Records
---
Amino acid sequence: MTRALDNDTFLRALLREPVDYTPVWLMRQAGRYLPEYCETRRRAGSFLQLCKNPALACEVTLQPLARYRLDAAILFSDILTVPDAMGLGLYFSEGEGPRFERPLREEDAIRKLRVPDPCGGLRYVMDAVAEIRRALAGSVPLIGFAGSPFTLACYMVEGGPDGEFARIKKMIYDRPDLIHRILSVNAEAVTAYLNAQIDSGAQAAMLFDTWGGCLSEAAYREFSLAYMRRVVGGLIREKDGRRVPSIVFTKGGGAWLEAIAACGCDAVGLDWTVDIGAARRRIGDRVALQGNLDPAALLASPEAIVRETRAVLDAFGPSDTGHVFNLGHGVSRFTPPDHVAALVDAVHEHSRREK
Amino acid sequence: MTRALDNDTFLRALLREPVDYTPVWLMRQAGRYLPEYCETRRRAGSFLQLCKNPALACEVTLQPLARYRLDAAILFSDILTVPDAMGLGLYFSEGEGPRFERPLREEDAIRKLRVPDPCGGLRYVMDAVAEIRRALAGSVPLIGFAGSPFTLACYMVEGGPDGEFARIKKMIYDRPDLIHRILSVNAEAVTAYLNAQIDSGAQAAMLFDTWGGCLSEAAYREFSLAYMRRVVGGLIREKDGRRVPSIVFTKGGGAWLEAIAACGCDAVGLDWTVDIGAARRRIGDRVALQGNLDPAALLASPEAIVRETRAVLDAFGPSDTGHVFNLGHGVSRFTPPDHVAALVDAVHEHSRREK
């Protein structure tokens, strides 16, 4: 486990140590835009069966790395494995996204909510992490991840898609005590889950706060950021003599970057609405930045992709570290696979030249 | 037309002239949460027929004013009347939102796009404005409105709901010349449309940029803000000896407030994710602010509504003008009508006390 990495550019950039070029990986880099992913998923039977089968999860995790010169792998999984292990009954209805059979709405059920053992019902995730880490054989680092306590709570309370988050917000305004109870359990569960991933081989940890941006600033600080701070503070900081960096990403959090940067994380993920140069001036002296090309740019021509990729690198500005290139959100399923190659190559070539 | 208003608090606050209390109106204050609205809409036959019938549009515009002590009325209409008048064939499919029969995707159709005569195919809107203004009889001011050039373009190019804006973004990256052509026509159309509303009796003008927040900062400036600046610069500034204030609202634009405040408008609308006190420190010396309670707060108990309403007023801070209270987005259809009364009364009472 302790052999040195062939390519540790990603980890070095997160810790703001000098690098030769800007490393790149992409949120949802293993996904439906890749025909080989669709093939493996078909074999698995469903998305959830794919997540729960360590051998197949390992297979799809490695697929984008076989195609592109990516600087990191990310565990193939879903943020909702944690509430599923809490007994809420995760399922996916075609075209509608995730749903829970038993959403969390009654005070009694909320009081009974318990932290799941990450090596019990979530054993399959740890097995996948270990298998991916072995398969990577020291080529690039493996990122573990989890949903933020608040984002998990959104799914747990709403139970299914609701653009307005009516149920959880009503609970926030009327019964903040119940929300705080859910968030406390979630924070403890996510901390244990990420630490188990690190113990199993994950070399960096990322928190996805997909829905924190639906809150007012005051509510964001109280119901999302405070619990991410708790998670980050509880993470294993070093493994096998090497620091394990953490990344916090709040979609729609562009106005709150200073507060996010102060939560204890090593890096802040940026969605595409933020100017990364402005973000660097605001918080670049404290954390690394990850992002932030508009995923929709990958639908355009390779020429446009190269132009827009360079624009993000140029906006970040000259530097020998502190930037991990990524999209501002996950790869769209409609992305032509060769467009991703154009992006990855443009990041490497343009950043080598500018350094 | 020139008789003085009984209550001009709203107009004075927008122009940052002293007021006795903080005025309030609500985006989508005439809507499905009101049973009397649902009744009138049933009589009209459909949402679109309601928009196109000046007598019924006037009736629903006045309904919330009969219930609540609101400080302004807003024309009941839809932002998509303009592209409808351009010949795109607006229709509403139940539960799916607006669609166009002939979305704008071919270069040839884009080249043929023309500015509609606001007193031709949009005559019904001007008739509604005049009728509402007469019916208001000087009680409170009437707000006219339009969609921003970019937001209209989103609907025109996508043709129907698409959360990712894949088509318009692909066009932005691959064919910016075509997008600029659409936006130029839209800006001219929206300017003429708002000026015709002002000529017909609207006493303030608001631009709704519902989708500008889906863009990167650079794209927002180039494809949304630049064209709103063009519209604002072309508006009638004075009518019947009184200034006609303009309000620009970009949902998700919290990171760009300084740029928005510099577009020539009198007031900037804020969604609920922005802290209004921080916004005031950033741009309050240049423009008035409108907003910004989370619409979901209206689903909570009246006690919580009063508390959250006061929190917004307190965040804005002590002042004798420059704040128009509103939600950060439209009233949800699930809002209990008496909750709106709690909000309106809390704004008036709390702001009178604090001044």
---
Amino acid sequence: MNELRREPVTGCWIITYLDRIPEVKDFKIESNEKKGEATCPFCWGREDQTPPEILVHRKYGPPNSPGWSLRAVSNKFPALRIEGELNKEGVGVFDMMNGIGAHEVIIEAPEHKRDAADLTYAEAEQVIWAYVSRSIDLRRDKRFKYILIFKNYGKIAGASLEHGHSQLIALPIVPKRVQEELEGAATYYNYKERCVFCDMIREERDEKERIVYEDEKVIAFCPYVSRFPYEVWIMPKKHASDLTGLDRDTVPSVARALRDSLLRIKKYLGDPAYNFIVHTSPINGREREDYHWHIEIMPKLVKVAGFEWGSGFYINPVPPDIAAKNLLSVKLEEK
Amino acid sequence: MNELRREPVTGCWIITYLDRIPEVKDFKIESNEKKGEATCPFCWGREDQTPPEILVHRKYGPPNSPGWSLRAVSNKFPALRIEGELNKEGVGVFDMMNGIGAHEVIIEAPEHKRDAADLTYAEAEQVIWAYVSRSIDLRRDKRFKYILIFKNYGKIAGASLEHGHSQLIALPIVPKRVQEELEGAATYYNYKERCVFCDMIREERDEKERIVYEDEKVIAFCPYVSRFPYEVWIMPKKHASDLTGLDRDTVPSVARALRDSLLRIKKYLGDPAYNFIVHTSPINGREREDYHWHIEIMPKLVKVAGFEWGSGFYINPVPPDIAAKNLLSVKLEEK
């Protein structure tokens, strides 16, 4: 019999299959081979095809020329623009405002084919630092309420350019999905006076079965309430509600947990598309006891169909303890 | 400048592009040509490959043999099973219950290649009646709290079998997505003492620009707050919170609005994958003044990526008034 599991933060239910568990070959994973190097605007030598760099890790050369190892630029075709006023207004029953925001791209490495899973630990640390420092900078703009950091890898996960990159969108409102998570976490905290994510970490550590990475500072696991097969969550062990408060000692652990988890997914599942999303607090300057920043990696192995859209349920055909065991079976060389 | 629009029921924000509007060719629509007729378990003559029929419209022949024009059967590989007890229990911070429910399939026509968009009006009426009568029957089971009816068309929309079919899942809980919609509609009602969907209909009728079907009983429109390009909502004009209260006079209008909308989408966009979902009240026997049943059609033209997953925002590159104008440009022969 399948099991219904309730995710304690947002309250969505997950149908977890306990029999008929698919193998890797059953997922029909599309190739994510990168073929567009010849015209890629994110490669060395084509720096003039992007807006100028906002942040750069550079070994040599002048700005906006080759020699960099990481580069952050504005999105050339932004969903939201930084210039202008919000001008909130009502339109009948609807509300409307101008599309103000910031939309940046963090190019993770100069080589076209080396993606987040292939970075060295040192390079992965650079990426995490870029998330932190771009967030700190954008927080100064008083129009913004939330900074969302995410990565789309592979066409079916929504990546429109192949070259490895993450995105950062600063929003003039706290988005619904974040609001839901904050409210769920606050409800739990008000009832139990404990952070729900800290409780989840304790439980995952007690059970041990779903952990895919652990060191002194950080843990990564396939959560008991995984919505998707091979989903992995990465969390700092010490309570912290905001990515921008990340301390120097924890960054290497976050980088390792993320790089290793992505590499295990790539090797075990044969390079599937995925999204990962940094879940962090809204911009309001206070450290919250009821929320815990973390990263959620969601491999795109199954389609989201009418049932999921209509209900907010998810159907996960791979129990997370099996997923963790499979991911751990991959041998990794350190780098 | 792009516009941010707020959907007044669930409160999600939509980034509506007002320039750089993509044309049909920009969407790279995958072929949904049907090639699997030779082994299709939903075709005439293979009735023994599905569980026995629960509901059937039959021109001739004994049960579970050819001669039918519509057939409802249990799903052979159900996400939830009808036998057993719920056995709710806590597992640490999590909640769990057995996967109890009903999962049925409504096979819309006997021909393998004729799908919902290709039905005659009379056949489309049969489909709507099947939704109503299966819902009425399943409501008697006291374990169920909600009945979700939806259709996945095309592989990328999650259809695993080609032969035209809708699905019906009876759930032991009111799902999160429905709960959100009910709460949003109730909040609006408590404030304004009017149904938010009735207000939306009034507004769409005043503006006229986004209507793709209208008769005395039913309206279909590309909502001002479309999350997806070429999204169409179908609503009874007279307030009614529940599909099962649908009266005999309104069924033909619902059937026409649905068939015509699907056919316009198929013809204008070149047969894209889509989902449609029937949004209706939970099972609890009372007619609600604050909720309005309707159908939402969501063509799958863009990928849902990290930004949407992380925020609950949507990016819609086609303004709904343009979508409606394009859909209306399709010439339909009545049938």
---
Amino acid sequence: MAADQNVLEAHLAANRERRMEDYTAFLSIPSISALPAHNADSQRAAEWLAGALRAAGLEHVSAERTGGNPIVYGDWLHAEADAPTVLVYGHYDVQPVDPLDLWESPPFQPIVKGNRLQARGASDDKGQVMIHVAALDALLATRGGAPVNLKYVVEGEEESSSVHLDGWLQANRERLAADLAVISDTGFFEGNRPAITVGLRGIAAYQLDVRGPGVDLHSGSYGGTVENPIYALAAILAQLKGPDGRVRVPGFYDDVRTLSETDRAAFAALPMDEDAYLAETGSPMLHGEPDFSTLERKGGRPTLEINGIWGGFQGDGSKTIIPAHAHAKLTCRLVVDQEPERTFNKVRDYILAIAPPTVRVELTYFGGGLPSLTPIEHPATRAAARAIEATFGVEPLYIREGGSIPVAASFEDILGLPVVLLGFTPPDDRAHSPNEYMNLDNYETGIRTVVRFFDELRDTPLR
Amino acid sequence: MAADQNVLEAHLAANRERRMEDYTAFLSIPSISALPAHNADSQRAAEWLAGALRAAGLEHVSAERTGGNPIVYGDWLHAEADAPTVLVYGHYDVQPVDPLDLWESPPFQPIVKGNRLQARGASDDKGQVMIHVAALDALLATRGGAPVNLKYVVEGEEESSSVHLDGWLQANRERLAADLAVISDTGFFEGNRPAITVGLRGIAAYQLDVRGPGVDLHSGSYGGTVENPIYALAAILAQLKGPDGRVRVPGFYDDVRTLSETDRAAFAALPMDEDAYLAETGSPMLHGEPDFSTLERKGGRPTLEINGIWGGFQGDGSKTIIPAHAHAKLTCRLVVDQEPERTFNKVRDYILAIAPPTVRVELTYFGGGLPSLTPIEHPATRAAARAIEATFGVEPLYIREGGSIPVAASFEDILGLPVVLLGFTPPDDRAHSPNEYMNLDNYETGIRTVVRFFDELRDTPLR
């Protein structure tokens, strides 16, 4: 492997300039998926990427039709018998660029500043896609093959809710059969410390409607004789959580997988400046379940949030009514092994049980997404960790994100694959903001990490 | 007095036709104060009324300038020494008439249907003003004088918040000195049963603002680590009242005057169909303090209502935020001897005491109005009751309205006068609605009641 490594390094060194030219050419295409005016640019980006994958040695490459921007597919399936098959996911579409006046340079004219490459998409996610292209190119050019079978899926609508991805995955389940999905759309921890994202929270979204009088009533003529629906709503909401932030819905925590010693050690290992975090929120103080750290509450515990509330009069001054109805929007963030609709049902049953008989209460389920967790102990996570340590020279941190990456759940649910979230962007990469950039050290080392990860996976039993 | 009565009846009988002509002429002027296009009509109605008051024998009559529609003033101050002075209040402006297509006849072309006179203003309040004009005319024509000194104040902006009345009262305090104010802008109880309104609730209006994060936060990235301002608001609101509707603010009921045996007997004497009342509200059930009847809770007990609430996302579907702030509009209905700002201060202190330290809470006082009560035992109320019994042949019921009549508080606060709310409209008079009407039996008997009331007051010590 040492000889292989020298050959690989020589190839990468020899091709560095071409690699940067390709990267900047890809970044120059304004493939903003949220803006219909850029649909042709997205098409152009898809075709450019298909060409780059073909040039790297991929087969069956095509920019496949969806109802929207194409999904670029390609594969290389000539690994040794019994080698695992790895599905690599990324996206070639980018965020809009406004406010344009805050950019130090035009967003689609990439420039290098020290060890940074600045452009829209430099990190999210064209940079990470190009890491995979470069790794593939290096492997096939220097060894004539890869240690694992590879299938690439690069979509063009991630920044506009991946509206056509799930249908395409459903329609191509057999072709996409694999042992593992690698999503490279995450990044490093604060201080640019290498990290693997091992968990994402799921979600369940719903609405609570409380109705009292048939119409808004005069608060003088009727006040004191009927229930006020806003009061009833407030009384219900106040019973959903305790003052300590713990959800009071019976059975809410039943399905929550207990944090293991390893999990808690991983959370504790993450650098965390509570004062800086608090300042970032603007809240008077941090708050939540007392038995868990801030990062544990954010990444490893479920929530019940009220996202919106309304009812009655909202204008200037005063209006003397008892409103006919009041409403709240709610979401739960979920952790394994919670299931969205089952969680909603528990909340609904509790609310209906505590609702006073003086009002009519209704709950509507909007939908949800499963939480996602590939444990630290999973062989694929272990392989990724070894690859990071071998290339970056440090053990990775393990992050659990509080939010969701819907495509992770899609690969788990539709294709039944474990997902490794292996990404290389710096934590302050300004994705979605002006002056987005990629750290070029992360980029170059990331290419080596991907090669090493595939090598590690060759001998890792995943089934 | 029997001889006087015969002369009075003969006069009223002889003048019935002219009296109806005057009434319909007054009703024909579309003096809609809320619509600037009718300002000239309001001016014309004021001048018409001034002429009618002069014709009845009033002195110092003028349509006095305000910033808006004139206030018509006139007096007769020649009663015997030691006779009390009575200030009579009414208004000559009327409500708008839309929806016009629901009127059975044009709103400003009065028509008689059986014992009803139908027109905008027939009951509210031109009809009641004309009862006073007719009573005055009958007294001065048949006796050459009245038993009490009289001052008439008829405004033209009652249906548009009486914006200039308080200033005019302030500026004319000496000229308006009296022993009693009689407001004829209320009516009879259900079943057209004669009634005196003895109480009105006051009000205190304010807003509650709860602030948490500096901006709306992503509920995935931050959920579980900071307080949700909507939850904090709900928890505060839920602690303001118990499930029985009783306000939990310490000291809230301290200033509430206990209902006397007489008060409770008067409430109990009022016909009340709870099923019909419930159906009218549209609520699933009636609700409120368990130790008080529905009418007691409405007329004799204070409230704390949430008139509006808002915060975060209110659109279709779901938005995954922890909102930066949440708000509620609140009002208290007050009964004697509660004071608006003192009551607000108690609510504010309680809320600030229970507010969690995880959010910033602010309360803003918008203003208020005093409750009003002229007890059943008050000599002026007793005199009005005797007048009703003598003319309508039944003892009056005593009503406490849940709402406020701001002018009642104005006469009490600015002029320091006890107020008797003596009105004659039928309870289903459709005031503010299409096909408003006056019951002509109420109207004719009402004239006799007013004459008798003044006679009763002559010998009633009010000071």
---
Amino acid sequence: MNYCSVCATPVTKKIPAGDNRLRFVCDSCQTIHYHNPKIVAGCIPEWGDQILLCRRAIEPKSGLWTFPAGFMEIGESTEQAAVRETFEEAQAQVERICLFAVLSLPHIGQAYLVFRGPMHSPDFGIGEESLEVRLFSLAEIPWDQIAFPVVKDALRRYVDDVTRGEFQVHVASLSDRLT
Amino acid sequence: MNYCSVCATPVTKKIPAGDNRLRFVCDSCQTIHYHNPKIVAGCIPEWGDQILLCRRAIEPKSGLWTFPAGFMEIGESTEQAAVRETFEEAQAQVERICLFAVLSLPHIGQAYLVFRGPMHSPDFGIGEESLEVRLFSLAEIPWDQIAFPVVKDALRRYVDDVTRGEFQVHVASLSDRLT
């Protein structure tokens, strides 16, 4: 950020009165420009004992696998964002999705909200941001070709829960070593 | 947003290639300025059968009651944000906090992540953004003086869970009628 988005004056970095963090502040119109973490909403779509993964067609990590996930938009709920991303990336419809994990990535200002839920039917397709979409049994998950450590972390927790036969809502923070 | 924060050129609202939503776009440097929902992290601090609430000293809803909550910052996890807000607003330390609710407010682009957890000690105080901080039994909650409908919704769910004797993680979306 170089300029105030309200009045185009160059911004300076300072701690506003009553605050304790450096913010971009406009000395002309006094606007404080806050930057906050973004929510990535994702879903592990289930069809029987299988889950649906997508091979990314876009950078970063083009060519590697993930479950459908993307930035939540204003105007939707977290669940709606997860359902939308599942349809956009894998052309699959999920229903009755449950929150599965809240995984913070503090160093890059993201929080993943990962849901899981059954597919409405075995129909799916290749969304614009995907190269390939397919169902995997848990034994087939391509662990060495997963796009992001946070996705791998969520999938490991998922496999553990399925193995143990009980789902919980996981809340964790991943250090920069892992992302 | 009137001007590009990168190069100070006036922005226009358009749907970028490969996108399906209106964004602020700079026609000079081509930056797309995304606006995404913000996370409000909060905590219901527990001391025995009581919970700690704060009377807001700032607008909006100055003078009304809430549990500690505020915007998550880059560089922290959702739990750390909830713990920080609890200390800033109520000078109380909470430990072993659990996720209690994920409540989306689509129309204002916010998602509340509400935790609950025991206070480390009965010590608390009046933070800068509070007029008054006190412990309430669940029967004493000032329902007609709660700052925001989303806070009231979370507290109602909390009281229901305590009454039923079992906590769950609530995921819901609140319409604009309720916020």
